[in-house]
Every structure is written in C-alpha cells, then in structure tokens.
Amino acid sequence: MQDVDTPAGRKRLVYLKGAWDVLIQRCATQAVDNDAFRSERCDQAWWREQASAYAANGMRVLAVAQWEVPATKSTLALSELLEDAAASPTLQINCLLAILDPCRESAGRAVAECKAAGITVKMITGDHAGACA
What we know:
Layout: E1 2-6, E2 9-19, H1 20-23, E3 27-32, E4 35-41, H2 44-56, E5 59-69, H3 78-87, E6 91-100, H4 105-116
Parallel strand pairs: 3-6
Antiparallel strand pairs: 1-2, 2-5, 3-4, 5-6
C-alpha cells in the first residue's frame, strides 16, 4: 500500500501486477494519457487487442493495475481483493508490460515431431494461449 497525493487529494493505493487476462476483468477504469491519477471508463476490448497482439509476437504480457482502498486501512489481505472481485470491477489498469520472450525455434519442430508420432502434447507455461500459436 502506498499513500499518494493526487490532484483529487490524498489516496491509499495498492498496485498489482499479473496476468493481463485476469486483471483486465477486474478493471472498471483506465489511466488517461499515461497519468495514473486521471481515469476514464475501461475499454477492455482495446486492452485485450493490445495484449493479444503482443502475445502473438512471442511476448509475455503482464498488466499493472491499481486499487484504491480506504485511507484508514493499514493492512490488507488477499482475500479482501478476491471478495471485492465478486462484487464488481474496481481496479484501474495503468499499463501493459510486454517482455520479449519468443518460443525457441526447436520447440515448434519438437511439437510437430511428437504429434506426427501420435503423442499428445500439452504445453504448460502460464503464457497466454496466443503467445506461441
């Protein structure tokens, strides 16, 4: 948690980073013009399009979001965020982080060889499904 002075007054914020496809579902607003203290309604379709484009180019994509909590709150449990998630989106997406991490060329050949041999291949990476398509 961080207390910050904003144009609208003092706020207590929690910053989150994680899988963009999970966080975007929780976002009601988005930063305006790279200013995390100005927000507008979240255009989730636009964020999905951007993240999918990065993933399709072999990049790992994370989202960075913020969550405003009451100024009186001094501790926070993960369960509070999860409980809040059940109600409605409350986060603000601030940016996407795209990290160049292409699939190895040999991976595609190895998968093709396994499939040709009748082996069912399961890739478990934590990446978005379009990352190594």
